[in-house]
Amino acid sequence: MKKIVILLAFVLFLSCNNKKGQANLVEQEQVEALTPMNPDVMETAVIYEANIRQYSQQGTFDEFTKDIPQLKQLGVKIIWLMPINPISVTKRKATGGDFASKIEDETERAKMLGSYYAVSDYTKINPEFGTLEDFRELVKTAHDNGIYVILDWVPNHTGWDHVWIKEHPDFYVKNADGEITDPLNDDGTSKGWGDVAQLDYSNMAMQDQMIKDMMYWVEKEQVDGFRCDHIQPIPVSFWKKAISQLNEKRALFWLAENDDPRFMKANLFDMEYGWKHHHLMNKIAQGTNSLEDFDSLTNYIASNYEKDDILMNFVTNHDENSWAGTVEERLGDASEVMTAFSYMVPGMPLIYSGQEYNLNHRLKFFEKDSIPKTKGTMWALLEKLGTLKNKNSALNGGKKAASSERIQTDNKNILIYKRSKGNQTILFVANFSSDEQEISNMPQGSFLDYMGNEEVNYSNSEISKLKPWEYKILIMK
Question: Is the entire prediction scored with pTM above 0.90?
Fold first, then answer.
């Protein structure tokens, strides 16, 4: 009897271990199912900018992590985390732009959390957001859901509490008196960023340490790339070195906060901001520019960018929301058509935290705020647009983007924009004015009206009317 009990216990032990092994194998397979960043992802991705501080009332990694699975509904394949590093206390900025230290009331002063972009340590986590383990859980959850995570990296300057200030003062630009300076304009005047200190890129030791700190997040924390802040003053030679060394470890995704094609050439950054397109959408919505300017911009992009360059298309981001105004403030009644337009043009569309919840207030930049969390019209719109972006090759916008063509119309306020790849063709038809418009040369044929989910037919002689800012997404049958 004793032998039978021992044998039974041994069998149960093996069975439990086998189940644990199977569970571990399943978990491992889920993580490993996310291949390194690749061009296929870039063709169909929507990118999401996560403002952890303002995403929830708690302002933590954990609260954002809970919502990662539902971001897939919006077509999100890349999460860009705004800076997650600790923020310097010295010269910390307050609402209004002055230093928090000048606020006499201690309670009010404590509310001023400073700028995310005044980093005090590149290899540490901002304790406001949680712990390193919390961050790791965020990355794991994203990867398990087939979503990549990139970090917002601030290479041009650090906060005044950064460890390098004391240990490596030679890493910084200095004035005639040998004092470390804040970032300066070409004429020597301050840019107004007094809460940060300017790094000196003529110092090769600093460059090497910068790359080493970036490497930590790739090797140890499994991040999938970087959104690099204010890259313009930094020499292209640094980016050639940094991107080459980091990509040797694993294929990464590189987004530049920039508007200069030279940083995209020769396999440097994969994507940069589509600033010109963003500003043009604002101006068309406000009535100061027209579709002729869109034609000029299309020609500029074709002449200055290489075919595998990607532009990020957006109607809002953290800077625009806080400083230039909400989507509603800038675009008004044109908000929906311009949002749809940002998905129709070549490139990758961006969703900024709160946009999916019809955010309609300027988020505070230097202190705690929060976004609404009720799904409304914008969630439904972004979900529908994201599904189309993910699944229809006519909206491919990466290194092998679908073709694009503006079809001329008899109405200067009407845009007919054609995207095609393989056997898929989409027509974007839109009234870019605040008045009802007629069009007599709609493309002939049968289409699926994607937003209305109905079949429509157009003949050459038919006159169609479009309400102010009305648009149609037509999938050719």
Answer: yes
Residue 89 inside a domain? The answer is yes
Lowest mean pLDDT across 28-42, 135-149, 369-383? 28-42
| Tokens coding 4 | 């039978």
Amino acid at 83: P
Do residue 445 and residue 308 come from a single domain? Answer: no
Confirm whether 300 is domain-assigned: yes
- Strands, DSSP E only, in 206-337? 225-228, 253-256, 271-273, 310-313
Structure tokens at 74: 């919006």
CA dist 250 and 431 (Å) reads 44
Q: How far apart are CA 236 and CA 255, in angstroms?
A: 14
Quote the domain boundaries for residue 413. 407-476
> 219 and 161 in one domain?
yes
Closest CA to 118 of 169, 163, 158: 158
- For residue 323, count CB atoms less than 10 angstroms from its CB and return exposed for 0-12, middle for 13-18, buried for 19 or more: exposed
Non-local CB neighbours of 423 within 8 Å, separated by 6+ positions: none
Residue 393: helix, strand or coil by DSSP?
helix
Final residue in a domain of this structure, among 347, 372, 401: 401
Q: d(Cα 147, Cα 52) in Å, to the nearest integer?
A: 17
Span 420-447, pLDDT tens digits: 999 999 999 999 999 999 998 888 899 9
Residue type, 438: E
* Residue 181, CA distances (Å) to 32, 46, 116, 155, 232 in order: 45, 38, 19, 15, 18
Helices 335-344 + 377-391 axis angle, to 10: 10
Q: Could you tell me what percent of the chain has a pLDDT over 90?
A: 89
Predicted local distance difference test score (pLDDT) of residue 79: 99
